[in-house]
TrEMBL record:
Protein name: Transcriptional regulator, contains XRE-family HTH domain
Superkingdom to which the source organism belongs: Bacteria
Gene3D superfamilies, per database record: 3.30.450.180, lambda repressor-like DNA-binding domains
MF (Gene Ontology): DNA binding
Pfam families, A to Z: HTH_3, MLTR_LBD
Every HTH cro/C1-type domain range: 14-68
Length: 266
């Protein structure tokens, strides 16, 4: 396991991100268009970066835009990436695009969540799936991973919960490691306490991330939805709010599921 550096300021933060991404000084220098010597001097505090160099290094390390602002501040520069409320008029085109995507995905479920998995928007297909769950789990802010795995949420209807739940938890954990966030770490720990232990020895049909979500429809044990998921984000966003949005779409894994979703949504 890579240890965290003890230095502070920009030098310590740069080294921390480089180690987190498992990138050598030489590789970072090549990516950022500078020299290994300069990167070494920056990490030791012997050199001070210019604003454009901070941005280039952050881009080269795939640092999220929120944390890029923190790097700029640590280096003595003003933040470069705004964080606008989602209802800001400037983000109207983004909201419109998301609404069209959600509607266009019908009758299949889809949601937009923020960096912590909290619900930003959902279509009628997702609302159809959540009928009958504890209303307390639907009170804002609605956390989608919690809603999926909570005993009063969708968990009792997930037929392969012991396997599929760990797909969700591993994704939350991976994000909290890649882009450290205390709220994500706490969420992952909470989810672990909600679900059965990870199977010690997966069965012969184990498919890992490829396994579809098997969800019972309503109260009928003989009807099941088989769903696979896709994740989409704004890869070129320069606004913190937009960059942290994720669109999760549920797709039918077979024709029977497609037909049942059409029936559910109406």
């Amino acid at each position: 396991m890579i240890g965290e550096p003890t230095g502070g300021g920009f030098a310590g933060a740069l080294r921390q991100w480089r180690l987190r991404r498992r990138v050598s000084q030489l590789e970072l220098a090549v990516r950022a268009g500078t020299t290994q010597r300069h990167v070494s001097f920056l990490e030791s505090g012997r050199s001070t970066p210019g604003r454009s160099m901070v941005v280039r290094l952050a881009e080269s390390l795939e640092v999220p835009v929120r944390e890029r602002n923190e790097l700029l501040l640590a280096a003595g520069f003003a933040p470069a990436y705004p964080q606008s409320p989602l209802d800001d008029p400037q983000l109207a085109p983004i909201r419109g695009a998301l609404d069209r995507i959600l509607r266009g995905h019908l009758p299949y479920p889809a949601v937009v969540v923020d960096r912590h998995g909290d619900l930003v928007a959902a279509n009628a297909g997702f609302h159809a799936l959540t009928r009958g769950v504890d209303p307390a789990l639907l009170a804002p802010p609605v956390n989608v991973p919690r809603l999926l795995l909570h005993p009063r949420g969708l968990a009792p209807r997930i037929r392969n919960l012991d396997e599929w739940a760990w797909h969700v938890i591993d994704r939350v954990r991976a994000e909290s490691v890649r882009n450290p966030d205390d709220d994500l770490r706490r969420l992952a720990a909470e989810l672990v306490g909600l679900v059965p232990p990870r199977p010690a020895h997966p069965g012969p049909d184990h498919l890992g991330f490829a396994v579809p979500l098997r969800l019972r429809v309503g109260d009928r044990d003989d009807r099941e939805l088989r769903l696979v998921t896709t994740l989409t984000h704004f890869g070129t966003a320069v606004d913190v709010t937009v960059a942290e949005l994720r669109l999760e779409a549920f797709l039918p894994a077979d024709e029977a599921t497609a037909a049942r979703l059409t029936e559910l949504v109406g």
